[in-house]
Specification:
Length: about 325
């Protein structure tokens, strides 16, 4: 299984390949400098995944999670693809849904309020096991639209697993059984508001690797969230690398051994834990092989998006299920 997190500015766009059908989880990004190139790279990945079947899961209908979908699906290269789109929540008049209406005509389309995603998704085969949680409950905190995000747990035949939750908060995960995961896609771009990315949730997920998709908005990812993740005991060690976090008005005085200047919006730190930010790495992908090793590959943002520059590092660490996570310098 390969999980690719694209660098989409402020937003989220992930492609999962390795099963009989490709999965596109969210397709949005704002503040993207080279939108056409990014869309081209996303389409390329879908085409390379093959199989002519695409499941699109939009965690919820906010612009930063959906706005690239029309451009992606209008690509001629996807003309032969059978596409199904499921969106968290229910249809309502909302500016953030710009674009989805146009795709109705082209694809099978539904909201989790009215269709069951278990019946809706198709052609996934046995290579990847997928479990979902949809959140249509009324008892969420204030940030209800985000909390409604579809949560997805994926696991391949060698046991490599990941959990993706759009902009979900801790409550959104409450009734979901499939929490423990090697890879955690830090939700809500690293927010710590509305009980997102809490220490108690991370203790249930037990991640070894974490990644956050964020860029220059809302002080995401927040320093406090990154601290919660780094302090989770299951996190693997990695060679030192940079992570940039929102520090504005933080009440911490230091983070990762560096003094915080909370008068500025963002600050860059160095960590030796396997936590990554798309702002610092560009796109990043995680791929397992038949030996149960997981490889991490970073895109160098200064290079073309289509050639994912190989910048791999060597380390290994025993994960919670005894599987080795290996990042190898090529
Ligand atoms: Zn978002």
């Amino acid at each position: 299984m390969e999980i690719t997190v694209f660098f989409v500015g402020h937003g989220l766009c992930i492609i999962i390949t390795g099963g009989d059908a490709t999965i596109l989880y969210d397709a949005g990004g704002i503040n993207i400098k080279e939108k056409d190139k990014v869309v081209g790279a996303i389409v390329n990945k879908i085409v390379l995944g093959g199989k002519n079947k695409l499941n699109v899961i939009l965690s919820h209908a906010h612009k930063d999670h959906v706005n690239l979908l029309p451009s992606i699906l209008n690509s001629k290269r996807l003309e032969e693809f059978e596409v199904r789109i499921i969106v968290g929540g229910e249809e309502k008049e909302d500016d953030d849904k710009i674009g989805i209406e146009k795709i109705h005509k082209k694809s099978v389309f539904g909201y989790t309020k009215t269709v069951d995603p278990e019946d809706f998704l198709f052609g996934l085969g046995d290579g990847i096991q997928v479990n979902y949680c949809t959140n249509d409950r009324e008892d969420f905190d204030k940030d209800k639209d985000n909390a409604i995000s579809i949560i997805m747990h994926v696991k391949d035949t060698v046991g490599f697993s990941a959990i993706l939750g759009g902009d979900a908060n801790e409550n959104s995960f409450k009734n979901f059984e499939f929490l423990e995961s090697n890879l955690y896609l830090i939700t809500h771009h690293g927010s710590n508001k509305f009980h997102a990315n809490t220490t108690s949730l991370l203790q249930k997920i037990k991640p070894n690797i974490a990644v956050v998709s964020a860029y220059l908005s809302y002080n995401h990812p927040r320093l406090e969230t990154m601290q919660h993740v780094i302090q989770t005991s299951t996190m693997a060690n990695a060679p030192k690398h940079k992570i940039t976090c929102g520090v504005k008005d933080s009440n911490q005085s230091t983070f990762l051994g560096t003094t915080i200047n909370s008068n500025q919006d963002y600050q860059t730190f160095e960590t030796s834990k396997a936590i990554y930010t798309t702002r610092d790495t560009g796109g990043v992908s995680f791929e397992s092989n038949q030996d149960g090793e997981v490889y991490v590959q970073f895109e160098n943002r200064k290079q073309k998006l289509l050639d994912l520059g190989r910048k791999l590092w060597s380390f290994s660490s025993t994960s919670n299920n005894g599987m080795k996570i290996k990042l190898v310098k090529s």
